[in-house]
Each structure stands twice: as C-alpha cells, then as structure tokens.
Design brief:
Keywords: Coiled coil, Signal
Strand order of the largest sheet: 1-2
CATH superfamily: Skp domain
Number of domains: 1
Structural class: mainly alpha
Shape: rod-shaped
Family: Belongs to the Skp family.
Number of strands: 2
Order of helices and strands: HEHHHEH
CATH class: Alpha Beta
Protein name: OmpH family outer membrane protein
InterPro entries: Chaperone_Skp, Skp_dom_sf
Length: 172
C-alpha cells in the first residue's frame, strides 16, 4: 500500500513537472482590433464596399434631395395652393419619404451583409498570417483580445501587421 501511494505521488509530481514545462512555452499576443482596423486588406475592403454601393447611395441622396425640395415647396407655397394640389403634393412627399427610408434601410442591410463577408475573408487571412508567423517563430500559443494583461514583450501585433502589409503589397 505504501508503495502504491508513493507511486501515485511520483506520478503526480512527474505530471505536474511536465505541465509546468509546457506552461513555459513561447506565447505571443495579437490585438485583433488593431489588425482589423489597420490592415491594408480591411482598407481595401472598405474601398470595395464604397465603390459597390456608391450608385445606390447617390440615388438615395438624389431622392432625399427631391424630397427636401418638395417639402420646402409645400412649406413655402402650401398656403397659396388649392386644397387638392396641396393634398396631392403632401401625398407625393409621404410616398417619397417612405421610399427614401426604405431604400436607406435596404442599403444599410446590404452594406452590413457585404461588410461581414469581406471582414470574414480578411479575418481568415489574418488567421493564416498569424499561424504562419507562430510556426516560423516557434510560438506555442498566440492569444487575442480577451486577456486582462499582456506584457509588451509578447505583443506581436506590429509584426503581424507588417506581414499583412507585405502580403498585400505582394498581391497575396
């Protein structure tokens, strides 16, 4: 029985030693918010979204401008119009207002969906770059934002951002 207890203690101490040896592995930290906000891939994605939705945005802006002119006309000249003409213009203004609001909402939804797609693509690129960097530099783990404290010595955000910039400029 004593031999059995001693053997169990030895195994616990040995496994604790192995665990502690692993705990001293090389760990890095990456601030994903910085990478997402500063990577050229995200900046390019933002330009893509702007270009993709520019025509729709301009159309909505024109409709909003038309609505403003119509509302100004009703406001300034409404007292001098016949009741039928005033009612007609007010109805047109209500319809145009609904169209503008609906178009803005639809555009916002479309932009959100497209932005999500592009951000997912960039996040996958970032994950690939981080994994490659970790393997090339002997890291056992790379942590992201959900940490309370990280020593500046383990923050590799700038190195990863530099690699993303390099990959972007080389067309990867």
């Amino acid at each position: 029985m004593i031999v059995f207890k001693t053997l169990i203690r030895f195994m616990l101490v040995a496994s604790l030693g192995v665990t502690m040896a692993h705990a001293q592995g090389k760990i890095g930290y990456v601030d994903m918010n910085t990478l997402i906000n500063s990577s050229p891939q995200i900046l390019d994605a933002n330009r893509t979204i702007t270009a993709e939705f520019e025509e729709q945005n301009n159309k909505i802006a024109q409709q909003a401008s038309d609505l403003k002119l119509l509302e100004d006309s009703i406001s300034k000249e409404g007292n001098f119009m016949t009741p039928d003409k005033l009612a007609e213009l007010q109805e047109r203004a209500r319809i145009l207002d609904r169209q503008v609001r609906r178009a803005k909402e639809d555009l916002k939804d479309a932009i959100t969906i497209r932005n999500s797609q592009l951000v997912d693509e960039v996040q996958n690129q970032i994950k690939t770059v981080v994994a490659r960097y970790a393997e090339d530099n002997g890291y056992d783990a790379i942590l992201i934002n959900a940490i309370l404290y990280a020593n500046d010595d383990i923050d590799i955000t700038d190195e990863i951002l530099q690699q993303l910039r390099s990959d972007y400029s080389s067309g990867q």
